[in-house]
Amino acid sequence: xxxxxxxxxxxxLVCYTALFLQVNRLTVFDAHDLQHKPGNNRAVERDxxxxxxxxxxxxxxxxxxxxxxxxxxxxxxxYPTKDLFAYVTGYYAFQLGSTGVERQYNDELAGRTxxxxxxxxxxxxxxxxxxxxxxxxxxxxxxxxxKDTLGDRAGSVVALDPRTGEILALxxxxxxxxxxxxxxxxxxxxxNAKVLNEAKATRARTFQERRFPGSTFKVVTATAGxxxxxxxxxxxxxxxxTSYQAPGRGRPISNFGGESCGGTLFPILEVSCNSxxxxxxxxxxxxxxxSQIAESFGFDRDIPLDLPGGVQSTFPVKAVSQDxxxxxxxxxxxxxxxxxxxxxxxxxxxxxxxGKIMTPHVMREVHDEQGNLVxxxxxxxxxxxxxxxxxxxxxxxxxxxxxxxxxxxLAEGLDGFVVGGKTGTAxxxxxxxxxxxxxxxxxxxPGEVPHVVVxxxxxxxxxxxxxxxxxxxxxxxAAVMKQAxxxxxxxxxxxxxxxxxxx
Length: 503
Prior knowledge:
alpha+beta; 6-stranded mixed beta sheet; 5-stranded antiparallel beta sheet; 20 helices; 19 strands
């Protein structure tokens, strides 16, 4: 009898142990996977039943808020600016999930971070649900100029402050209205999502799509030339010619329109001389140096932007190490070189900010409902692809491109500011000739670190000369930088009131 009792006790102990381990596995080790398992709407239902904080621009415009609802949920998430900040705020939907700031800062908006939990201990006897109000670095006035000047042309505009990494504008055409996906009419939301996804309207071209950067990549090659290839303002002087033939088999790298060009760093950057930069990357720098500098700018790396879904920009490391022809093509932004507009803005930022790239971000601060600061973005350096001396040299070279090169229109309306830039034209086809028009650049008061950098990409434009970027993209960049350099006026101050937070 005692043996049977003992065996039963051992059996119950084993069962208890197995149950204990299973419960801990589910609640500790598998908790994250279970919470994010498709079809598990318990967390979503919980959050939809309570208030959610606002998302606000740096100039005081409410971009997202929760308003009372009379359907199955207490609150409806709405986006007053509609498509203007869709790729920044993202959407918060019951069936479709969340994107953008809504996803990245979900716990802050829902008031579920440690800071909010500690505050709730003080509010045990207060009838109040804590939420977090997120203030972003983007400005409505700058974003509106980006939208208006790009118009209905497919493309992207990125503007950021190189001193801090704060993103001031992040606009893509086409865009979409997040209200169409956040609606509590789930049938309509699903149908809207299908239409938008088929049109690729929910993917931000600024950081979720790659394009051939064309001649804007020559700033990367110039950096490699100075840092790794012994290039200075005076040496070497590249031969004046119409094309460059890399060692090995392959077609020569031709200049636009068969034009002849050459010379030292400043003049070859001013006219965007293909033959000179192809030779610089192939003979003066080499595959290893080009790959190292490209990586230091952020190519083939994850960019820690505080918005989900970003893609890596790419530099064909393996291909250029095996074939000098590929290296020559990559040195002028062709072959398999692809970059997001955000990446190319970061290239300009490195030149503007003394060689350092600050980590790009959209969140500035989080406050509770009483206006108390809960969280502030901790600015940090992403990488330092060049020395301060190299940055100074390339800054002067890019200023020269604006003053007497292909980017003169980037200075339109910016009298009194120092403006530098680099145009780019990425050829897409020759029948008829079409190309992506690019500009990257910076602007700021004399004697100071530039206050704004910009990257503009306008897709599929007619023509394929180097003038295309200067003619099409530069005026957009100039207008955006001009607005960014204008001191912002907060919307609540302009209206004589105050921005309201909360659910």
